[in-house]
Hints:
alpha/beta; eight-stranded mixed sheet; 8 strands; binds 1,4-dihydronicotinamide adenine dinucleotide; binds (2S)-3,4-dihydro-2H-pyrrole-2-carboxylic acid; P5CR_dimer
Amino acid sequence: MLKNKTITFLGAGAMAEAIIAGLVRLQVVQPNQIIATNLSDQEKLNYLEIEYGIRTNSDRLEAVKEGDIVILAMKPKAVKEAIEDVRETTNPSQLFVSVLAGIPTGYIEDLLGHQAGVIRTMPNTSAKVGASATAIAKGTFATDQHMHEVDKLFSAVGTVTVVREEKLDAATGLAGSGPAYFYYLIEAMEIAAEKAGLSQEEASTLITQTVVGVGKRLQSTTKTSKELYEEVMSPNGTTEAGMKVLQERNSQEALTDAITNAIARSKELGAVFSNTKK
Ligand SMILES: NC(=O)C1=CN([C@@H]2O[C@H](COP(=O)(O)OP(=O)(O)OC[C@H]3O[C@@H](n4cnc5c(N)ncnc54)[C@H](O)[C@@H]3O)[C@@H](O)[C@H]2O)C=CC1
Ligand SMILES: O=C(O)[C@@H]1CCC=N1
C-alpha cells in the first residue's frame, strides 16, 4: 500500500525524527522513500540522512512537490507560514497528514486552498521505539483509502486509535503529552534514589524495569488500575507509607488537572490559529 509512495516530512524536529526512526527501523518503507525538509537547520538534515539513510532537501518546495504523503510536523504556530510557502506546489492527489497539536483539519484544508485529503493525527515520542499511542481522525476530503494508509504508517510505530476529530484534543492531552508526565515522575524517582544513596546505574535499571513492567502488566491484565496499585500495598507496609504522602498532597487531583489543562490548551491552540486565518 505504501510501496512506491514518497513521504515528505515538512518539519524535521523531535516528532518527525521519532516517526522516521520507527518507520526505518521497522522497515515499513525504504529509507529512500522518505524526504525531510525544515526551516533552516541544515545540520539536522545532515544528521537525519546519516542516521536513518533517508533523503533530505533544504528546498521545501521541491521536497513537498515530490511527496505523495506530506507529513506536517512543524510547531502549530508555524503552520500558516509553512503551508503558504509551499502551497503553489501542492496538488489534490497528495495526502496531508498533520501531527500538530490543536490544529483542525478544516484550517489546513483552507490554507491549502483545494479539496485536499487531510488526516489529523496525534502520535507521541514513543514512536521512536515503535510504541507510540497514536490517535487519528479524518478530514472532510480524506478517503477511506487515505485512512488505511495513515493507519498503516502509524501502526508501524505503535497502536492506532481512530476517533472523531472532536476527540483529538483529548487524545492530545492524554497520550500526545502523556510521555512527559511519566518522565517527570521518573525524574522524581531518580532524585529520591540519589538521596537514598543508589548509584545512577543501579537506579536506572531499577526504575526502567519498574516502568516497563507496569506497561507490560497493564497490557496483560483485566484488573483495574486501582486493583493493581492496591495489590502492591501491604497493610502498614512501605507502599502505604508512600501513597499516604501522594494522597495527602492531592497528587491524583493534580495529575487529573494537568491532563485537563493540556486538553484545554489543545483546544485553545486550534481556536487561536483558526481565528488568524488568512
Ligand atoms: N514533541 C512531541 O512530543 C509531540 C509533538 N507533536 C507535534 O509535532 C509538531 C512538531 O513538534 P516538535 O517536533 O516537538 O517540534 P520541533 O521544534 O522539534 O520541530 C519543528 C520543526 O519544524 C520546522 N519548521 C519550522 N517552521 C517551518 C516552516 N515554516 N516550514 C517548514 N518547517 C518548519 C523546524 O525547522 C523544525 O524542524 C508540533 O506541531 C507538535 O504539536 C505531536 C505529538 C507529540
Ligand atoms: O506539547 C505539545 O504541544 C506537543 C503536542 C503533544 C506533545 N507535545
